[in-house]
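Lab notebook page, bench 4
Experiment: in silico fold of construct C2
Operator: M.H.
Input chain length: 184 residues
Purpose: comparison with the prior construct
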Amino acid sequence: MEQQLIQVQNKIYEIRGIKVMLDFDLAEMYGVETKSLKRAVRRNIERFEGDDFMFELTEDEYNDLKMRLRCQFGTLEINDGRGKYPKYPPFAFTELGVAMLSSILNSKGAIEINRKIMRAFVILRQYALGYAELNQRLENFMCETNMQFGEIYQALTEFAEQKRLAEEPRKPIGFKMSSFREDE
């Protein structure tokens, strides 16, 4: 099960600062053709209104993604079959969009896949929250440490000033003996 979650997590990308899954990955996971998935989405487009559910990648975003995948895996799979390279940029589904897909792809297999995908999104969110909490703790630690260093610096400065004053020659107190010379 953990291996399956890792496989799902590897298909979650960050595009426009949002964690998304792409239509061709989802179609593969659900065991349907990409065009069938897109057709089902278009028939139920009112369920996916707004970028918080789904959006279509721009050409630049799609080209950038292809370059990242090539760099990540070295080479692309070679498949002589039709439909390997999409004619149109893919749909990107947010976590809400993937949840909405379960309502239009209503099969036992789709429900099980959706559970795995939702778990993967939750794990990524927990990881991000843990990272943010760790970052906040580190920032607090650094702030406290800087304050302590400031206090140490101030104490050392005061100590150095006291030492300088202690080592400075003092003017003698009292009468000068030379002014009270007795006549001989």
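Observations: Helices lie at 2-9, 23-30, 34-43, 59-73, 95-104, 108-167. The first helix runs from residue 2 to 9.
Next step: discuss at group meeting.
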